[in-house]
Backbone:
């Protein structure tokens, strides 16, 4: 119906073609949370061909949080000569947000990424005023998540740990 194929449909297409290895196959397996299939496909040593976000997400899927954080810190410290595509950076932030809000914010800022998770990351780090300000600047770019963030910000305003939010969003 004119919609782009989902990751599952793309993986099924590869399987119909007999493809059970290679970067595209592994990336789809990781995206779908199929850790065992991804690891089996990498037994031939193709990991060097993977996107950085795929390597980080695979480490997280395998419970290797320290490895994922180490790779992300190295990424954060890369200068423009080592810049990754914004889509890859965004996928890394999405994967690491539950693990390290601070590192995600550093990646966003170091690489000049505009990411809808930024206000929520600020809120997670105890900065509701900063979250409200950033949410106001991002506005409609947040999409429907904007309303969830608004609810969280209202809750933070009454939470004694955060104090009262100033009228930063105005």
Residues:
């Amino acid at each position: 119906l004119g919609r782009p194929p989902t990751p599952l449909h793309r993986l099924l297409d590869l399987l119909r073609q007999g493809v059970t290895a290679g970067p595209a196959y592994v990336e789809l397996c990781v995206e779908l949370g199929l850790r065992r299939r991804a690891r089996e496909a990498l037994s031939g040593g193709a990991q060097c061909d993977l996107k950085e976000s795929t390597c980080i997400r695979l480490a997280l899927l395998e419970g290797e949080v320290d490895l994922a954080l180490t790779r992300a810190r190295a990424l954060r410290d890369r200068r423009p000569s080592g810049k990754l595509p914004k889509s890859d950076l965004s996928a890394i932030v999405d994967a690491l947000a539950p693990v390290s809000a601070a590192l995600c914010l550093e990646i966003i800022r170091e690489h000049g990424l505009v990411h809808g998770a930024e206000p929520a990351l600020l809120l997670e780090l105890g900065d509701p005023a900063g979250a409200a300000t950033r949410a106001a600047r991002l506005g409609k770019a947040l999409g429907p998540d904007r309303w969830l963030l608004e609810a969280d910000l209202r809750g933070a305003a009454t939470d004694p740990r955060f104090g009262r939010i100033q009228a930063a969003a105005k």
Residues 56 and 72 are 7 Å apart (CA to CA). The first helix runs from residue 7 to 16. The chain has a mean pLDDT of 82.
